[in-house]
Amino acid sequence: MNRSEQLSRLADTGEIWDVIVIGGGASGLGAAVDAATRGYRTVLLEQADFAEGTSSKSTKLIHGGVRYLRSGELGLVRESLRERGRLLHNAPDLVEPLAFVVPAYRWYERLFYGAGLTIYDLLAGKRGIASTGYLSASEVAGKIPNLRQTGLYGGTLYWDGQFDDARLAIAMAATAVANGAVVVNHLKVDALVRENGRLNGVVARDMLDGTEYRLKGRVVINATGVFTDFVRKMDDPGVSEVVRPSQGIHLVLDRRFLGGDTAVMIPNTEDGRVLFAIPWKNRMILGTTDTEPVPIELHPKPLAEEVDYLIRHAGLYFSEAPTHDDIKATFAGLRPLVSPSKAKAGSTAQLSRSHSLLVSDSGLVTITGGKWTTYRQMAEDTVDLAAKTGNLPVAPCLTGDLPLLNKEPLRRGALLDPELPYTMEDVEQAVVGEMAMTLDDVLSRRTRSRFLDEAASCRCAKEVALRMASLLGRDDRWVEDQVSGFPARSPLD
Ligand SMILES: Cc1cc2nc3c(=O)[nH]c(=O)nc-3n(C[C@H](O)[C@H](O)[C@H](O)COP(=O)(O)OP(=O)(O)OC[C@H]3O[C@@H](n4cnc5c(N)ncnc54)[C@H](O)[C@@H]3O)c2cc1C
């Protein structure tokens, strides 16, 4: 993928696209892959980088959602488990099985969670990963050496999927392009264009050089996550808002705080939340919180009380408790939760409790809510509706078994930093083949350096920026701007 090549395909102002997708997170990229593989002429515009919004800040689980069992949402769990199975099959390099232990500190918990997780297995059916099983206290200790042993009765072992969210997003962008779509990052939609009351295009601005693009299309899909209502208001300033953002944060810690390769799931903390401690690359991630109301922004900051909450809970469950000084990085993301009553108030078609679809009077198709795991189903529903709205020729969805293209990271040569599992060849691939345009694109989403170790990322920032500048034809001033802007956008600020 090359950004200049992609942009050059937008130069023809007479071209009429079948589908214009606004937003390059899980929802938008999923829709672009789906639409392109159906044969629709598709373009996707992302104001920042692919997955720079919520989609790079998830817990990195492809999961059925054990928590929905508790609320009896079996249909939602079944849908998620089906999509989990598909992703394990369609993106085997990017999604892998992960074993979880639910520790039991009360005598009845092992039975209770064991029964629930057996239902989880049954709902997965032939797409199940491996069977749920009971563990003794010493077996739990063997798998998670740093878990608090006092009062431990044992645990339940179950399986889910784990992935690298931003890398999956790049694989989806590459798959969309391979199927004829145009996808462009750092291109922001500023306005929607209508004729005779129907939407028929967008005005977009290149955030890197200011160039304006006017694109015409038969249908416009709004897949902008927590920014959904901003785009809906471009269409109809009087429309009532449907998205209620809720913030979740994660702490990134040394792997020794977990020990081993097994994740821990605490289904019911003292205030009823679910807490995950998960091995991820060379680290452990601990999350998540659920805080609202919060302002809508692309780079939300972790709140001090959220960090304190996670550190305090780590202290409850781990023998060697991490302190604030042990935090290698943090990341905060905003869940685009949909307020159901408000969604109903518009002209809506609510297809599933996991995600919501809306169509405005002028034909803007909005997809919001849902989760990474179900992005493919969400995309199928979205494109079905978009095709109807835009009077596109009927074409079946082909993504059920579609492999997602992934270029294995290279990892040859010296590491960028002893704390980071990446080399300069990863940087080069990101720039040359994956449309990385800024230092943050490379260090946050093509490599996950910044999510793994903030200080190490700052240490190698200059060297990476210099190499990028030589590949992109940028000057010293650009290098200076990128490096000086880098700590300012730090999630630890
Ligand atoms: C803390 C947390 C943990 C989570 N963990 C998991 C998990 O483990 N597993 C799971 O399945 N799901 C998880 N989720 C849910 C999942 O991450 C989200 O549902 C998903 O990433 C949302 O994707 P999206 O594309 O709708 O939104 P986003 O990823 O936010 O994408 C929207 C994009 O639209 C762009 N945009 C906005 N306005 C414009 C404009 N005018 N022009 C062009 N582009 C624009 C934005 O820049 C952004 O990139 C988690 C969510 C959170 C918050």
Protein architecture, described:
- By secondary structure, this protein is of the alpha+beta class.
- The chain has helices at 3-8, 26-37, 66-70, 74-90, 109-124, 137-143, 165-178, 228-235, 304-317, 340-345, 375-389, 424-433, 439-446, 449-452, 454-472, 476-488; strands at 16-22, 42-45, 61-62, 95-104, 133-136, 154-163, 182-184, 187-195, 198-206, 212-222, 243-254, 263-266, 275-280, 283-287, 329-338, 348-352, 355-359, 364-369, 415-417, 420-423.
- The chain folds into three domains: 3-54 and 167-242 and 339-389, FAD/NAD(P)-binding domain (3-Layer(bba) Sandwich); 92-162 and 245-334, D-Amino Acid Oxidase, subunit A, domain 2 (D-Amino Acid Oxidase, Chain A, domain 2), CATH 3.30.9.10; 415-488, no CATH class.
- The chain is built from 16 helices and 20 strands.
- Strands 1, 2, 7, 8, 9, 10, 16, 17 and 18 form a nine-stranded mixed β-sheet that branches.
- It starts with a helix and ends in a 5-residue tail after the last helix.
- Flavin-adenine dinucleotide (FAD) binds next to α2, β8 and β15.
- Flavin-adenine dinucleotide binds next to α2, β8 and β15.
Distance between the termini: 32 Å
Indicate the percent of residues in helices.
Answer: 25-40%
Shape: globular
Ligands: flavin-adenine dinucleotide
Q: Compute the gyration radius: what is it?
A: 22 Å
The overall pLDDT, averaged over residues, is: 93
Would you tell me which CATH topology of the largest domain applies?
Answer: FAD/NAD(P)-binding domain
CATH superfamily of the largest domain: FAD/NAD(P)-binding domain
